User: Fold Phosphoribosyl pyrophosphate synthase-associated protein 2 isoform X5 from Drosophila hydei.
Amino acid sequence: MSKRRLGSVRPPKRCRSDMDNTSTSDIVIINGNSHPDLANMVAERMGLKNGGCSVFHKSNRETIVEISDSVRGKDIYIIQTGTKDANNNIMELLIMAYACKTSSARSIVGVIPYLPYSKQCKMRKRGCIVSKLLAKMMCTSGLTHIITMDLHQKEIQGFFDIPVDNLRASPFLLQYIQESIPDYRNSVIVARNPGVAKKANSYAERLRLGLAVIHGEQKEAESDEVDGRYSPPPTRNSTPQHAPSSSRQRTTSVSVGVPEHPVKVKPPLTIVGDVNGRIAIMVDDLIDDVQAFVAAAEMLKDNGACRIYVLATHGLLSSDAPRLLEESVIDEIVVTNTIPHEIQKLQCNKIKTIDISILIAEAIRRIHNKESMSYLFRNVTLED
Assistant:
């Protein structure tokens, strides 16, 4: 008979639910005013309740953040996306992050499905790279990690001094094409301009469809506008007189000084590819000002496209975009719920929404459990 020492007690077996509760007991999900519905959906998918955080504005428009639950030593996930009220969205995020930092949170992860100012990632005229400034502000506020989705340019990740996970919504959109567009094999993926050709080509290769690119512009580009920097320099001899004679013989002299940049002449809108009798599917990362999409759709219709779809990750749909889309020849606009657009859907019956909360919830779970994120970039499905 086996002997058992006095005082030794076997630990009780832990059930599956206990392990699940332990793994998520130190996760706190809070959100600002930008997209509370998405935050609630993510928390529900993870089996958590949304943390007690209220964000409101005083009469002088200052932002006040009050966190009712303890965040000391916990992993905080702040869900705050960019909307048409981008400046308030940013300030709410920064103040929430700093409040958690000063309350001794262990880690603070900013979940920003649509990063505001992401289109201002290049130097234009005498402006500045605003997304670089925003990245510095976020790092200073106390954020230790960023989760975002389909950045306008992937290089924006380099602006941050903290890890950035740029999730992809393309598997959701690809699945929508395969399951919800009748006879999608008769489709052609369309790039609205050459800048989107790389994304459109990726969709075309994954779906094994043809590719068409719309080339040309209807209006003058921003980079072609008259600016003081284009004023010609004074004319002077470009070859120094004190240079050796052999050097002067091999140096080409320009009589007018510094040569001018040739003026870019953009051709009228032209389609490179065949869309006659086929379904045209335009893809992009953001739909905001829809006039360019409407003009491209009219051109596709004139060239024989039977149906026209527009798919994008972020549906900002500013100004009178819903009215223009409703009156256009576009048959359907498909966007994800990274940005709230319920009001726009009431104004335009063509707008459809894909829920990506499962992807954000899985990303949060993997980061918290220190699992690899590469799986999300290879195999993303809509299954629960």
In short: The radius of gyration is 27 Å.
